[in-house]
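User: My instructor asked us to take a sequence, write out its structure as tokens, and then describe one feature of it. I'm not sure where to start. Here is the sequence I was given:
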Amino acid sequence: MNHRLRTFAPVLPVVAVIALLGLPLAPGAGGAGPADAVSGLVVLYCGIRLLRERRRPLTPTAVAVMGLPVLGLSIAAMGASSPGAGLSGLGRYLQIFVLVPAAVVLLVRDRRDFRVLAWSFVSLALWQGAIGVKQYVTATGASYQGEDIRAVGTFGPTDVMGMATVVSFGLICALALALGLGSGSGSGRKDLRQRAVAAGCAFALLLPLALSFSRGAWIATAATCALQLALAGLRRALKVAAAVTAAGVVLVGGFGVGSAMLQERISSITQVTDAPDQSVTDRYTMWAAATAMWREHPLTGVGLKGFPEHRDGNASLALSSGSDTDGAGAGYLKQPLLSPHNMYLLVLSEQGLIGLLTLAGSWLALLVCALRGLYRTHRTGLPGLDCALVSSGLLIWQLIDFMYADIGGPSTVLTAVVFGVAAWWSLVGANAEERPTAATPVRATAEGAMAQ
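Assistant: Let's start with the prediction itself. The structure tokens for your sequence are:
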């Protein structure tokens, strides 16, 4: 056991960040949490390791891709309404999109470390999902249509997307492990057992995802899983699609798990333009306000954390005073609408075209490199297809989710880990093409690619 802990010691601080998101939060708590504090320690720990080892850890390409957002963020921070707002906004963005992802890239040394993080995502999702299912069954969740049945895990009603996000990440990782483990020439019984466990976890996570009643998470997860299946091969895609359909029929049709509410929630997805509810109306109104801010300041935006200050001057009267939250151990609260709930429009309004091109450009570069590495791994039959599917899937889910969500809340630190996981495969792991043998273990292969 001690030998195993020493083997994975560098990546364990990142596992700790993920594990801390399973702790219960105080009712009504929002913003940064314990996991954010530990993520700062992870960055410090990584810096100390670099100074002690005195090595060049990243290639120039990796530095350029991961450091690109700093340019737009710095300009937007200088344009903030106050130095305090600029510095706090800059620190948060650097934490989520630069510092923590870079630390993850440097601490993950090979595919074994990568798989530890993937299973950590699955474990956290199972924990939060189990709490969410209990909340639905015992009517102790967040308020939904007058009943306290919405599964939110430990995140509470103020971060209703928290559990849905965690469960989605876990489901994507589980599906990728089930599809990709043992795809190389050196696969064995251990890989087959892990694939069976991963497939079981993926099916188990379908229930809490459904009970989150999160339309955005459903859309992003369905699209991502479909792409994962297509990338893994048509035959597997058809088998898994049939199994998922059967599981859905059993859960909803056979056991009647929230069938009426689920059907109503699903049908509402197609009604966002015909007969939108107030939450959708608020979202459209804030999107229009963000676009108006960008038109006034097209290059640099209104400055970091400037959306709330400029919202009322650019929003129509259709915008409500806030969203109502209740249940899950917290009292009734009117939650103010302080962002457009669209990451691209938030960046465009506060950072302008410069910020959007640098930040989204970095994400696009990671996605292109991840998919290129996936294609290379699939074509050559080298080990690592599971890692390719995990990183590509997580990144695709996040980029889809950013169309109707943005950063904020205790679960945001997990977004930083996701970008780090995707960056490791895109910039390091995908380039380690040598087949692992007894003389050249996987760890040495990946470390060699990192040092090049």
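For the description part of your assignment, you could build on this observation: Residues 130 and 136 are 10 Å apart (CA to CA). Try explaining in your own words what that tells you about the chain.
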